[in-house]
Amino acid sequence: MDLDVFVTAHRAEWDRLDHLLRRGRRLTGAEADELVALYQRTATHLSLLQSSVPDPMLTARLTQLIARARATVTGTRRASWRDAADFLTAGFPAAVYRARHWWIPTAILSTLLAALIGWWIGGHPEVQSALGAQADLREMTRPGGQYETYYSSHPAASFSAQVWTNNAQAAALCLVLGAFLGLPVLLILFTNMLNVGVGIGLMASAGRLDVFLGLILPHGLLELTAVFVAAGTGLRLGWTVIDPGPTTRRAALAQQGRAAIGMAIGLALVLFLSGLIEGFVTPSGLPTWARITIGIGAELAFLAYVYVLGGRAARAGATGDVAEADRTAELPTAA
Length: 335
Description:
The protein is an all-alpha fold. 79% of the residues lie in helices and 0% in strands. α4 (81-98) packs across α13.
């Protein structure tokens, strides 16, 4: 393609589109139709330039022109309460459901890792000695020790807020850092499972594993599930960098990235609920069976939410991505 000839042939169309855009709302019906036609042709021109002879200055001009034209053609749409309702009843659960092939294996392998670490620490006194002095370890695991008083060390409301903030940050990091081939996500997962495994091993060696599980299960089931969902989604985002599928890598990453942002918002709400359980239920005077029952109930409710509402929405075509009208227009690519 001869760039000079191409520009000469189509410059009048671009100038005309720019002129119509400057007219704004004062267009006649015929001019509005002309604007739409010029917008479509200019988008095709930009695609041809990008695939044949990309010129930075001309590409930038046409990109800006197309963005202005698209905003004029489609108009602006304000978010409403209906958007929030659709997100909670369809978009978010569908995104979690569609990512299940990533976060379920992540959950299984991570749980096995935590159990293995716990077994290794609990059955090897030399490993426990490497973690700390025996007197300090006894202080942590004794009745009324640090493992038990941790959940009641602060007022319930402030403790819930602190826990929610920390867990939401961990989930957000898994989602954001997934783009780096998923490697930081594996580190975050390992750190979390190491902490859980150390607690299991030390409390098991003290003969108080039942107490530890009674403290961690009420909130930990839902909390860890949310972390596993975030990690699985981050790993899927990292795999998209390697294998974008039938679309371009840029388009695939854009789609997965938008879904990950929505996932972060939804998981923040899930972690808020687990934080409330950790702040008000875990340290409460309820019997252990009652606290664990509440945790299991919250976990089953979340899974039902994902598999019933999310499965139905996913089968209806929901992906967790933003509505098509709100996405950036994707230009055709050369074969």
